[in-house]
Each structure stands twice: as structure tokens, then as C-alpha cells.
Amino acid sequence: MQTTERADIGVFGGSGFYSLIENAREVWVETPYGPPSDLIALGEIAGKKVAFLPRHGKDHRFPPQSINYRANLWAMKMLGVGSIIAPNACGSLKKEVKPGSMVVCDQLVDRTNGRKDSFYDGPVTTHVSFADPYCPTLRPIAVDALKSLGIETHERGTVVVIQGPRFSTRAESLWYQNQGWEVINMTQYPESYLAREMEICFVNISLITDYDVGIEGIAPVSHREVMEVFKKNNDRVKDAIGKIVEKIDVAGDCSCRHAQEGARG
After folding, report:
1. What pLDDT is attached to residue 59?
2. How many CA atoms does the CB half-sphere of 85 hold within 13 Å?
3. Residue 50: its pLDDT value, please?
4. Has 210 been annotated as catalytic?
5. Contact indicator for 45, 37 with CB cutoff of 8 Å
6. What are phi and psi for residue 17, nearest 5 degrees?
């Protein structure tokens, strides 16, 4: 299951991001956890080798609860990826976090269930720290990139990750809002934690597409409305990814690269 293909930086996102990569070619990476979501596009951005994988598949055939997150992260690791940029569509739990703005999250709350969320099912018990879920090296790079493009940017925020595919009830959404959390999403876990187990730096860009229903006076959102906002902002996200890739030091060190130290007794 080894591959001779190589990349320095990975990107998870929707199919609209294929135009990111110059002279892209597609490769298949086998994993012991089954197939990744799709073929991986390899190419260059700002002179750096980049691997792009649509987390839901090209035709959006995998809903959030059915994505093979372990295969996706394993494939990136086999390619040699050391940093992953992970944009996605998210809802807002606060009025001041407006649709069209972006949040570079620094914390996460997991409300999913039944997802395969670790590479370590035994026989050796492995506890990888997840106190700070997102990379301390990549986060400021992402914030600077977004701000340089004039995008309304929230430098930190907590995302609550729900199971999907259903959206929240009003009561659930109000509960999350009352906890003081900013963002709601369906895919950031276990994607972010599996990256940590693989010692890959991981940063999220939450594109706010709508207000969640717990906010007073907000009508229920549809998936079509979410995707329309996301598509309208695709170019801004792609520009931001290009700037982030340009600033990443692929030879640099980071605490994420040492996540396994002390993880076993």
C-alpha cells in the first residue's frame, strides 16, 4: 500500500477547488482502512507540491456521517503530507459571526457518534493530546491570509461538530448557542483528530454560510441555500488557500509533528 507519489501540503474541500492546482493529475492511494473519498489530485501551488481530496467525493456522494475519514488521512500521510488546510461550510451560532465571514477555529466540541475516530484500536493503548485541536503554526498564517484579502475574519472560535446529515432542532441549536460556541459543522471531527494522530499540522477555515436556527428570528436553512453561499465564496476561499500555501514552511517544525511523544505509557 506504499506509493511513490509525494506532496507537502494537503487540502480537503469541495469539488470546486480543483482549479486551485496547476497541471493537476489524479492518483489513487490504497489504504488499510478502505478507499478514500475519491482520487487525489496532485499538482503545484506557489511552487509547492499539493494534494487535493474532496472529502465528500467529486459528486458529493458521501454524507458527513459516511465519510471514510481514516482512509482520507492515511492517504495524505502516505503521500508525505505534513500540513492540511481544511475549508468547509459552517453555520453561525452568534449574530456577530455573519454569513460570508470566516472563522479560523481554535477549539472543538464533538457531538458525533459511531464514527471511526482513531487509528489506535489496540493492542497498545495510545492517548494523543487534543487539548488544542488546531495547529498553532498554521492558524496565524490562515488568519493573516484571510485578512490580507479583506475577508471579515474571526481569529478564533469554538466549533460544535454534529453527526448529520440532519440539521439541529431549535432546542439543540439554542443549547449550543448558550454554551458560548460560535460555529456548527458536520465534518471537522474526526478529521482534525486523525490528523493529530498522524502528526500532521491541521487548520480549519470555517466559511459561514448561514445562521443556525437557535438564533431568534432565523428561519430554517436548506442544504441548497448553504451550497449557494459556499459557491459564491469559492473564489475567496481559493485565493486564501493559495496565500496560506505560499507561507507554509514545508521544512519547518511544529508541536503537531511530535504528537506521539508521551502518548504511550
Report:
1. 85
2. 33
3. 95
4. yes
5. no
6. -90, 0
Domains of the chain: 9-258 (3.40.50.1580)
User: In a 3-state reduction of DSSP, which class is residue 100?
Assistant: coil
The grid coordinates listed for 164 are 448529520
Catalytic residue among 210, 235, 249, 253: 210
Quote the cell numbers at residue 162: 454534529
Q: Report yes or no: 49 and 9 within 8 Å, Cβ to Cβ.
A: yes
What is the radius of gyration, based on Cα positions, of the chain? 17
What are the average pLDDT values for consecutive 10-residue runs of the chain, which has 265 residues? 87 73 87 96 93 91 96 98 95 94 98 96 90 98 97 97 94 95 97 98 94 77 70 83 95 96 83
Catalytic residue chosen out of the listed positions 212, 235, 239, 249: 212
Strand pairing category for 40-45 and 48-54: antiparallel
Q: Is 126 helix (H, G, I), strand (E, B) or coil?
A: coil
**pLDDT at residue number 3:** 82
> What is the dihedral angle through the alpha carbons of 263, 8, 233, 209, rounded to the nearest 10 degrees?
-10
**Which SS3 state, helix, strand or coil, does residue 23 take?**
strand
Instruction: Respond yes or no: is residue 212 known to be catalytic.
Output: yes
Residue 49: beta bridge partners?
44
* Chain Cα centroid distance, residue 24: 21
pTM: 0.93
- DSSP letters for 41-68: EEEEETTEEEEEEETTTTTT-S-GGG--
- C-alpha 254/C-alpha 83 separation (Å) is 10
> What type of residue sits at position 257?
R
